[in-house]
Amino acid sequence: MINFPGGSKAFEICAKFCYGMTVTLNAYNVVAARCAAEYLEMKEDVDRGNLIFKIEVFLTSSIFRSWKDSIIVLQTTKALLPWSENLKVVGRCIDSIASKTSMDPSNVNWSYTFNRKLTVSDQITESTDRFQQKFNPVPKDWWVEDICELEIDLYKRVMFAIKAKGRMSGNVIGEALDCYAVRWLPDSVTGLVSEEHIRQNKILVETIIWLLPSSKDVCCSCSFLLKLLKFAILVGAGDGPREELMKRIAFQLDEACAKDLLIPSTSDETTIYDLELVQSLVNRFVLHHAQNTDYEKNEKGTDDLVLGRVLWLKIGNLIDAYLAEIARDPNVTVSSFVSLSQAIPPSARPIHDGLYRAIDIYLKEHPSLTKTDKKTLCGLMDVKKFTTDACMHAAQNERLPLRVVVQVLFFEQVRAASVGMNPPQNISCPSSRSTANTEDWGKTVPEDYKSLDKQMKSMKIADEDCRKNGKKYNKKSSKNKGGGALLLPSRSRRIFDKLFVSSKGHGENKSSETSGSSMSPTSLNPGETKSSGSSSRNRRHSIS
Questions:
Q1: Which residues contact 127 (CB under 8 A, 6 or more apart)?
Q2: Which of 95-109, 156-170, 407-421 has the lowest mean pLDDT?
Q3: How far apart are CA 12 and CA 102, in angstroms?
Q4: Which of 7, 30, 207, 348 has CB atoms 3.0–4.6 Å from 316's, for a disulfide?
Q5: Domain residues for 234?
Q6: What domain count does the chain have?
Q7: How many Cα atoms are found within 13 Å in the side-chain-facing hemisphere of 456?
Q8: Is the pLDDT confidence value at 346 over 80?
Q9: Element (H, E) at 455
């Protein structure tokens, strides 16, 4: 009985049939009985109506017509290889499953796992369920959960058969693969406890990658693809599957979130997360979408261009959020931080609050930075793109170089004067700055300033206000050259010019401390210039 297919239970079924006893066949034992009957050669040429004939009738008329039974039978075939394969039971089960998944969902009238997701109130009576089915159409991915119970080798063959039918959209295929990955991949790295687990998960990940829809359109969520990439790296998947994932992720990187990009580093680097991988993804994204952006810039007007840059606003927010995450790593170098920050175009950051928060966290976690490094980091920010809350926070932040704080104060006065308001009274002077809490301030940023709609509107409104206020300001300044509130920016500029010139002459230590953004306070108001050569030189010397 060692080599007998199906074991003693299958032999018992055959024996009962020979003695004319009642035999009960179901989805769990029919394959074993079929293999045993083949082994015993219970064919029609021996006796008419023999067991093989009766089992084939049962398979055709009952098993292969049932959705759930087809899946159960397919699961039982693995223990009976190669008999089940040679008898074509495996192939017929796969074809039955693939044919049913490719049917019009309106013709699905059998039970499937998706039905069990109804709420308790939807399951009061059977008649209520039937009534609701008339008004709640069957979803296209109704079959996804049921085939998730198949092992990877059988699942792969079923998915190939479904794709070969040519009736399933790429989005549904992507949803099915996502569901299967959730079912079988471990929730964390700790699930890879042994070499055998790593080997099994490597096969699983590589198979899922090759089953991804061939279309490069967005068929799978970016979060799902990044999860696959993370496991592909951890289990040592081949270069081919990893490169395929990189291409797909780079195409839709704007749909990711910062947490998805936190992929542990497996190289000899000392950083916690793989920064080079993220840098590569960002570079690919920028390279892919830059050509489309240039075309839009040539073909569309300014307003359409602003409204069409949601993608760049999203990638800008993503990079700033990711920078804030990696800034807490004490081993992240300034060059890596700067390189990733500058990987996206300036148009992706109409507001610099997110970048400021990331830089401030980096300064807090790296207190031993040199003045040159601080200057390099703060040079990434443009205080003119700070919101009011960011300006108030920066003015009280003792981690920032003095020059940045002075620029923030000056810009706030310029902005207040340009809209006819009094300068903010609740911003502390640089000499009395206290340590600002970046974490608390950062929590309010997503609610008030990180909305894409708000950023897009702010870009349009700021452009219109600058044009309107520029005209009004020029008219009023020509009439009121003697004084008034609108002369405050000019006075402030002269004061700050003297401050920067005097600080420049106090030695190297003081000048290097006053690092800041790419624009000095004297260049914040391009509408006013001075003709004297000495003033021009003073302004140039004040730029560090």
A1: none
A2: 407-421
A3: 38
A4: 348
A5: 140-256
A6: 3
A7: 16
A8: yes
A9: helix 452-479
